[in-house]
């Protein structure tokens, strides 16, 4: 019988080396898993984004037991990308870890360098932005909006683009001006609905969403988090409508809008009373 004592696959305490070996074997072109072998960076990217959101969801719900597993799923995505990159001769997991460690050292001279640690969090944020700006310049990202990742969720990217533009003075100084712009874009959308092509309607709708993201920024509200909370509220209240109908042996399709709207209002009142 073969001695498995040195095989990290069988060492439950091996941690990261065990995970790296698991992925290496999954991708082995002769003995690996056919599904894992067929994947590439583009096919895995959606899973990477999904796993990041599942981490955020576990944190938001305070589920620390689930968070452990979700962080593992997210780490697996990093390992998967690194394994594919190593196979192609681009980089390795160790080099990924080395790059991010060096980046953190470079961006924290008040911890790892000679700068004083005695400064406010606000000043540290300003210094961080200066360092990132220098990094972008080194990569020849010279335009104001260069480097804002295309793959970000659209609302999040909108806010990042607006923050970059605001740094050079391209921003409304008053919240009221943003609200006025929302009214203008909403009116254009109503007009577009009746007179323009579907593509033009979509464009006007996008303009309205972009300004709504800007309003959130001016109000100090994260649009992505606000919409996530609204989604959660909608889900809770619609579930309450469904439960009320189920108590009578019916489903939503056996009801009508007026009845469901009344049940929605009742769920809203009950929810606020329980707060």
Automatic annotation (TrEMBL):
Single Gene Ontology BP annotation: dTTP catabolic process
**Which segments cross the bilayer?**
none
Please state every residue range assigned to the domain named NTP pyrophosphohydrolase MazG-like.
39-112
Q: Which CDD domains match?
A: NTP-PPase_MazG_Cterm, NTP-PPase_MazG_Nterm
Reaction catalysed by this enzyme: ATP + H2O = AMP + diphosphate + H(+)
Q: What is its EC number?
A: 3.6.1.8
GO molecular function of the protein, one example? ATP diphosphatase activity
In terms of SUPFAM superfamilies, this protein maps to: all-alpha NTP pyrophosphatases (SSF101386)
Write down the superkingdom of origin: Bacteria
Q: Which PANTHER family does the annotation name?
A: NUCLEOSIDE TRIPHOSPHATE PYROPHOSPHOHYDROLASE
Q: What is this protein called?
A: Nucleoside triphosphate pyrophosphohydrolase
């Amino acid at each position: 019988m073969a001695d498995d004592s040195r095989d990290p696959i069988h060492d439950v305490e091996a941690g990261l080396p065990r995970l790296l070996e698991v992925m290496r074997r999954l991708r082995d072109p002769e003995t690996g898993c056919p599904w894992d072998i067929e994947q590439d960076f583009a096919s895995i990217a959606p899973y990477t984004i999904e796993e990041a959101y599942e981490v955020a969801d576990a944190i938001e719900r305070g589920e620390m037991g689930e968070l452990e597993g979700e962080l593992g799923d997210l780490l697996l995505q990093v390992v998967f990308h690194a394994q594919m990159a190593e196979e192609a001769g681009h980089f390795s997991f160790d080099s990924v870890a080395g790059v991010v460690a060096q980046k953190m050292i470079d961006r924290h001279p008040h911890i790892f360098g000679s700068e004083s640690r005695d400064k406010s969090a606000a000043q540290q944020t300003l210094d961080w932005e200066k360092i990132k700006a220098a990094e972008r310049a080194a990569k020849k990202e010279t335009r104001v909006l260069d480097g804002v990742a295309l793959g970000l969720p659209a609302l999040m990217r909108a806010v990042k683009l607006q923050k970059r533009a605001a740094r050079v003075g391209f921003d409304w100084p008053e919240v009221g001006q943003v609200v006025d712009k929302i009214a203008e874009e909403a009116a254009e959308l109503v007009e577009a609905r009746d007179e323009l092509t579907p593509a033009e309607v979509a464009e006007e709708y996008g303009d309205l969403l972009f300004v709504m993201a800007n309003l959130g920024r001016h109000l100090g509200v994260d649009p992505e988090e606000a919409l996530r909370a609204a989604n959660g509220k909608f889900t809770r209240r619609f579930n309450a409508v469904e439960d009320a109908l189920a108590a009578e042996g019916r489903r939503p399709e056996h009801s009508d809008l007026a009845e469901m709207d009344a049940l929605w209002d009742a769920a809203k009142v009950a929810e606020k009373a329980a707060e």
